[in-house]
Amino acid sequence: MSLPKPVLITATMGLVSRTGGDIDKPPVEERSATCDACPFCDDVCGDPACAACAAKKTTRRTRYTMCEVRRHTTVDSCWLVAGTTVYDVTSFLRRHPAGTMSIVRHAGGRDCAEDFSFHSAKAQKLWANHKIGRLVRCPSEKSSPSFCLIS
Ligand code: HEM
Ligand SMILES: [Zn+2]
Ligand SMILES: [Zn+2]
């Protein structure tokens, strides 16, 4: 007699929200041979010919996982995270009074909540202009105390 396989509940939840209820089948689109995108979330690879990732890109979203955020660490695409807020600061980099690199060094997901709080009220309004959404946990990640599963 064989026991039922353990089910990874968090992964199932992610698939429900992305594919609209189809929890058994993996995404059907073909991944390109070089695709390094996380299959559990909306992370996409850099290959424009990757059908699996093209299918993920169809809707504009405001929730991002670390898998996605950690790709944006250059002057060409620079994302910051402060708490659970995600910012795309690419267009601001060259105007930053403390220089481009002080921001780029903090890009890709390390928590900038402290950096945010030492800025003036005026500067914090500028940060707000660059908000693109919220950080959510990728179903492939183990739950961590800094994330709330319910939100
Ligand atoms: C959305 C992102 C950011 C925006 C819009 C922003 C904006 C600004 C602005 C307007 C100032 C002038 C002083 C003030 O008004 O507080 C400033 C100063 C400064 N910022 Fe940022 N900043 C950002 C991210 C960061 C990050 C991630 C760091 C991390 C090191 C950082 C480090 C600094 C420092 C050290 C200063 C002081 C510069 C000085 O007074 O010489 N900033 N920032
Ligand atoms: Zn891909
Ligand atoms: Zn992921």
TrEMBL record:
GO cellular component: membrane
SMART domains, per the entry: Cyt-b5 (SM01117)
One Gene Ontology MF term: heme binding
Alphabetized PROSITE patterns for the sequence: CYTOCHROME_B5_1, CYTOCHROME_B5_2
Sequence ranges assigned to domain Cytochrome b5 heme-binding in this UniProt record: 61-136
InterPro entries: Cyt_B5-like_heme/steroid-bd (IPR001199), Cyt_B5-like_heme/steroid_sf (IPR036400), Cyt_B5_heme-BS (IPR018506), Cytochrome_b5 (IPR050668)
UniProt KW keywords: Heme, Iron, Metal-binding
Entry similarity comment: Belongs to the cytochrome b5 family.
Name of the protein: Cytochrome b5 heme-binding domain-containing protein
